[in-house]
Specification:
- By secondary structure, the chain is an alpha/beta fold.
- The protein has three domains: 59 residues, 434 Repressor (Amino-terminal Domain) (Orthogonal Bundle), CATH 1.10.260; 116 residues, 3-Layer(aba) Sandwich (Rossmann fold); 124 residues, Rossmann fold, CATH 3.40.50.
- The protein contains eleven helices and twelve strands.
- The strands form two sheets. The protein has a six-stranded parallel β-sheet with strand order 2-1-3-4-5-11, with helices on both faces. It has a six-stranded mixed β-sheet with strand order 7-6-8-9-10-12, sandwiched between helices.
- This is LacI family transcriptional regulator.
Length: 325
């Protein structure tokens, strides 16, 4: 740390009435300092025009206070809300969050990790389809979101548990032949969601897919679904759901009188146009925040307990499900 930076830090400490060490912690590791003390130090720093230089901070602590988050893309609202929660938790702990896009390419994921591993304190990765070997690198702090891999801490949204409850709801209405519009090929979560739905319903579940998680895919599969004789359908995500609903309206199929339709994520959270749909409320922001807090514990040498955290979901019964005709 430069000599003039140390002198200015001492000025901040004197004005705030704390030691230099406490002033440094308040600026570098704010979570370790009481709120009133932290605020006094910040107020003194602002009044004196003091700014703690990132390079000095890294030298003093061995930490860059920068975290990286790998996401498949930025167009999916499911990922966007996870990012929002992760950023909130990072900033609350005095860190910055760098978001990088993998385009669901294992080669790009590996290149991003290799390029950033010496510049960030650790990674949060949303990687539903990449090989597990990408995320088990020695000396690279890593936390996965919505996927479990041996040896890597994770935060998993319990969508399979929610689909188990959704299957029981449909069975209770009298549905005996249920369609599942599945997720993309190679998805870690997709077979687990299908199992949850099957186990919950206790009746026949016909899987359609794998399907791209897009509006177009939901639109294209609707004709085949209607011809299948299923009386209820569950979509892997909101984009598939919306595409399916659009095509059903075009075909003149009434929901829920002729076909009950559910979605495995929360449309209301994404601001879409079917607020009364039967869905799962998925606390994606909580999952992102939990992943960052878990990562900070790993970086600080505190193994997470439990190693794999589960975020519960809630079944919201709306107007798109009813007893079969």
């Amino acid at each position: 740390m430069r000599e003039d930076a140390m002198a200015r830090l001492a000025d901040v400490a004197r004005k705030a009435g704390v030691s230099v060490a406490t002033a440094s912690r308040a600026l570098v590791r704010p979570e370790m300092v009481a709120e009133r003390t932290r605020q006094r130090v910040r107020d003194a720093a602002i009044e004196l025009g003091f700014r703690y230089h990132p390079s000095a901070q890294a030298l003093a602590t061995g930490r860059s206070r920068l975290l990286a988050m790998i996401v498949p893309d930025l167009t999916n609202p499911f990922y966007a809300t996870i990012i929002a929660g992760a950023q909130r938790a990072a900033e609350e702990a005095g860190n910055d969050l760098l978001v990088v896009v993998s385009d669901e390419s294992p080669e790009r994921e590996r290149a991003l990790i290799d390029r950033l591993r010496d510049r960030v304190d650790g990674f949060v990765a949303i990687a539903p389809r990449g090989p597990a070997s990408l995320f088990t690198l020695p000396d690279v702090p890593m936390v996965l979101v919505d996927r479990r891999t041996r040896g890597v801490p994770s935060v998993v949204i319990d969508t399979p548990g929610g689909l188990h409850e959704m299957g029981a709801h449909l069975a209770g209405l009298g549905h005996r032949r249920i369609a599942y519009l599945g997720g993309p090929r190679g998805s870690w979560a997709d077979p687990r969601r299908l199992d949850g739905l099957r186990n919950g319903s206790g009746h026949e579940v016909i899987a359609f897919g794998p399907l791209p998680p897009t509006f177009e895919a939901g639109n294209r599969i609707a004709d085949e679904l209607v011809a299948s004789g299923c009386t209820a359908a569950v979509a892997y995500n909101s984009a598939l759901f919306m595409g399916l609903m659009y095509r059903l309206a075009t075909l003149g199929v009434k929901v829920p009188e002729q076909l009950s339709v559910c979605c495995a994520d929360d449309l209301a959270e994404f601001g879409l146009a079917v607020p009364e749909a039967t869905t799962l409320h998925v606390p994606t922001e909580d999952a992102g925040a939990s992943a960052v807090r878990t990562l900070l514990g790993v970086v600080d040498g505190r193994p997470p307990e439990p190693r794999h955290r589960s975020v519960p979901v809630e079944l919201v019964i709306g107007a798109t499900t009813a007893a079969p005709a």
